[in-house]
Amino acid sequence: MELSQRLDLAKFGFDTPGDESDTQDIARDGDAFAQLCALLVKIGVVEDAQEISADDTLDGLDADSLTQIEFVVRAEDHFGVRINEELFASWDTLGDMAKYLAP
């Protein structure tokens, strides 16, 4: 089951998955890592995307579990993919996630 199916973000005051306004201001022409960094800025994990390296983890950036789920749901919407728990758990770093999501 995809993470976005397990949690209705609207119940927590977040935008609903599939709402294009979630990610429309994030350029889709940059590399996947830059887009992930922009998502992390958008949801308030960091203030500046330059603070993030490909070797960082969400835990290392002090993202709590709900923030991590919000990040994955927004990444699913932005990249047009579904990310299940096993896939998410297989990525050690944000760089690993970016490699998977790169076209």
TrEMBL record:
Gene3D superfamilies, A to Z:
ACP-like (1.10.1200.10)
| Domain of life from the UniProt record | Bacteria
Ranges where the Carrier domain occurs: 30-103
Record's InterPro entries? ACP-like_sf (IPR036736), PP-bd_ACP (IPR009081)
* Name used for this protein in its record: Acyl carrier protein
Organism name: Corynebacterium meitnerae
